[in-house]
């Protein structure tokens, strides 16, 4: 395409170039690096899992291999969503709110923070450190939550990205 937009790989630099929001440009850099980092970690884990289970028959092991990829998509997808939404908006010249780019950047940063909160919730009890200072009550509260609750903050933040996109697009 003549406009430099070539799917996922081309959408990142395209959105960066076309947006006038500095906050969004910062998010493109940070969000893309975080998504690449998550992809590297998930793919490394998948390679280790394949190596450990190479001689095993299919069944449940095939499911666990697929689950690695699915988890990677659920983590990296919402990180890239604001960038892809903004690239699509600029490419198609869709009329949106003046705050569209910057608000999607804010929701992307919220998702990134929610990943951190989810990770704190899922820390194993033997690996939890004693926290002192201003953040001690918050960290203590997060440690006390059941580990399965670690999926709630990223899920809510991902929904907020979609709601922001839909609300600001009309």
Give a verbal description of the structure.
- By secondary structure, the protein is mostly helical.
- The chain is 74% helix and 0% strand.
- It contains six helices and no strands.
- The chain has helices at 7-18, 22-52, 60-92, 100-121, 136-144, 152-169.
- Helix 2 runs antiparallel to helix 3.
- The radius of gyration is 19 Å and the shape is globular.
- The two termini are 27 Å apart.
- The model has no long low-confidence stretch (mean pLDDT 88).
- Keywords: Membrane, Transmembrane, Transmembrane helix.
- Pfam families: DUF8056.
Task: Give the key terms.
170 residues; mainly alpha; 6 helices; globular; DUF8056 domain-containing protein; transmembrane
What is the compact description of this entry?
This protein has 6 helices and no strands. The protein has 170 residues and is mainly α. The two termini are 27 Å apart.
The low-confidence parts are none
For the terminal residues, how far apart are their CA atoms?
27 Å
- Outline: globular
What assembly state would you assign to the polypeptide chains in this entry? single chain
How many E-type strands?
Answer: 0
Describe the sheet with the most strands.
none
What is the H-and-E element order? Answer: HHHHHH
Number of helices: 6
Rg result: 19 Å
Give the tally of structural domains. Answer: 1
Tell me the strand percentage band.
under 5%
Broad structural category: mainly alpha
